Amino acid sequence: MLATVPQQRSALGEETTETKVTEDRERGYYRRITETFVSGELVSRRVEVSTRDDGEINLVLVKCFRNGKMVFGSTVDKISNVTVRGYHHQGKCLAMEGDEDGDGFFETLILIGDNGIPVEGFERSKDGTVTPMSEERLSKIKKEFEVGKGD
What are the two backbone dihedrals, phi and then psi, of residue 20, each rounded to the nearest 5 degrees? Predict the structure, then answer.
């Protein structure tokens, strides 16, 4: 199914905004994809997923684009109560932050190297304190990224 919201002119009459919504069901999943275009250029894509196709959205993925390149990505997993956000520049992820307990506070910050693997990690406290994460935890996160790259 495809639904399109007609283009709308800005107050200046220069830019147009169009929103496209598609839905599909595949392999037991339901997906609703909402894409927003400004003057024909994709600026955001939101994918909402019901992993059990039971009407409950439990996974939300958002990507934001500038000049055709992704600058921000976010994944909200409502089942595990985890949110991860990534910040991108020139096609590479530079930093990621994680809310690991679903309270809306991002307690983990990871800096990503040129090879796509974390180079440093920090933990934030609600009192504003930032400390480098332990070598053990950073090493574990690096290994998870290496496995995820699929060599």
Answer: -115, 135
Do 88 and 22 belong together in one domain?
Answer: no
C-beta of residue 47 within 8 angstroms of C-beta of residue 61: yes
Statement to judge: residues 60 and 126 lie in one domain: no
- Asked if 134 contacts 142 with a C-beta cutoff of 8 angstroms, the reply is no
Find the largest Cα–Cα distance for the chain: 55
Confidence of residue 2 (pLDDT cuts 50, 70, 90): low
What DSSP element (H or E) covers 131? strand 130-132
Tokens at residue 48, please?
């909402």
16 vs 13, 19, 33, CA distance in Å? 8, 10, 20
CA distances from 3 to 84, 93, 113 (A): 29, 32, 40
Instruction: Indicate whether 12 and 62 sit together in one domain.
Output: yes
Output the pTM of the full model.
0.82
The amino acid present at 19, given as its one-letter code, is: T
